[in-house]
Amino acid sequence: MITYARQNSEEQPDVPPPPAEDHIAPAPRVSVQAFCETVETAAAVQSAGEDRRLGKAHLKIQMGGMAAAIEAYRSAPTPNVIILETEGRTDILAGLDQLASVCDAGTRVIVIGRLNDVALYRELVRRGVSDYVIAPVQALDIVRSVCNLFSAPEAKAVGRIIAVVGAKGGVGASAIAHNVAWAIARDLALDSVVADLDLAFGTAGLDYNQDPAQGIADAVFSPDRVDTAFVDRLLSKCTDHLSLLAAPATLDKVYDFGADAFDAIFDTLRTTMPCIVLDIPHQWSGWTKRALIAADDILIVAAPDLANLRNAKNMFDLLKAARPNDRAPLYCLNQVGVPKRPEIAASEFAKAIETPPIATIPFDPQVFGSAANNGQMIAEISANHRSVEMFLQMAQRLTGRGETKKPKGSLLAPLLEKLRGK
Predict the structure, then answer these.
(1) Looking at the whole model, is its pTM more than 0.90?
(2) What is the Cα–Cα distance from 395 to 378, expressed in whole angstroms?
(3) Which of 240, 168, 167, 180 is CA-nearest to residue 207?
(4) Neighbouring residues of 372: CB distance < 8 A, sequence distance ≥ 6
(5) By CB atoms within 10 Å of each CB, which of 72, 113, 224, 338 scores lowest?
(6) Angle of CA points 78, 84, 89, to nearest 5°
(7) Burial of 91 by CB count in 10 Å (0-12 exposed, 13-18 middle, 19+ buried)?
């Protein structure tokens, strides 16, 4: 079935492009072959193939359009997806009929054309074309069209992955990740899971006062067993909407992993959880880089000093370049206002990174230290602490949700919160 038809951008120049934060679910491991007639379309398809959401797809590009596709599949099996560019009208329907005679069952066809015509659209629908895209196309058009083929509108939405990482060790990135996840679950009422990826020294179990017998290590060391049921058994329930995939935090093993070691875990979590928050340790390896690039949204946590500024800018520039079709990474400043410590102002960070921080969290060792030692969140220790509102704002920015489910104006709210805590 046709997913949708887009309007010609030349005929409607005032239509704004899709927002960068538009959530597109990644495509599975599929084969995609494109037959282009113009170098501009070929370049757009090539750029789409480099997008993280098509990272598992095997893409091949050829020139020649419809005629080349018909000739190619006379003696070869067809892939999962065929992308066809055509510049004519009279030959497109006849060409599709010829292609159907050599096309394997189950193959999906995306047509790129220059005609914005209802009659043509209906004929394409009748012939079973999966999508019709009006040229000229951009890389994101191709990404969206291919990915939407494998994401049915009636299916449960694929989970959004939020990666949180520190620009430097000891900047409190884990505390930020855990409190933001708490706000997502409690205030936005969004089912979420925190995955603690620091297997040797992770603190998520301590912060949530959990000590599960199993966790993420069981999954990463048994990749052949990873499925929905297996991962569900490893989750530790923290609240009604928040679960934890805890790190073992033991040193009896060496945690050296390949770049794709966590892929199966993330893919499985996406199918069951609307929101996955990755607590990524401060290290640079194949799998940490891969996890950051593949995330839907990224939050970099930095302290206000020179090393953090340098590292944050390096990470920001690399991730922005590696994810040209995604929203740029976000960053926040933490531990701001340490007495007698020279600090770099937020305005200097904004000038270097070319965007302001989404939050500036004050240094408060009493509250943050008490929360860490008690295995509680800041909202549980001090509901009116100014950082609590910042965590909620970050949660809203990272999830794209503006409304909270938290009741307002109730005089009994503080008492109810205490009772829930007990």
Answers:
(1) no
(2) 14
(3) 180
(4) 175, 203, 206, 207
(5) 224
(6) 130
(7) middle
Give pLDDT tens digits for 118-175: 887 788 888 888 888 888 999 999 999 999 888 755 444 568 899 999 999 999 999 9
% of the chain surpassing 90 pLDDT:
61
CA–CA gap between residue 129 and residue 110 (Å, rounded): 6
* Cross-strand partners of 61: 34
Domains of the chain, start order: 31-148 (3.40.50.2300), 160-406+417-421 (3.40.50.300)
The two three-digit tokens of residue 100, written as one number: 């159907």
Residues 261 and 233: their CA atoms lie apart, in Å, by 19
Interatomic CA distance for residues 264 and 243, integer angstroms: 18
The single residue listed with the structure tokens 């060792």 is 365
Strands 242-245 and 236-237, how do they pair? antiparallel
Q: How far is CA 31 from the centre of its chain?
A: 22
Alpha carbons 246 and 214: distance in angstroms, whole number: 8
Strand partners of residue 134: 113
Token digits for 131?
Answer: 């999508």
Determine the average pLDDT of the residues in 227-243. 93
**Cα atoms in the 13 Å half-sphere on the side-chain side of 226:** 21
Reported confidence tier of residue 36, pLDDT bands at 50, 70, 90: very high
Helix, strand, or coil (residue 243): strand
Distance CA 45, CA 36 (A): 9
Is the distance from CB of 127 to CB of 100 less than 8 angstroms? yes
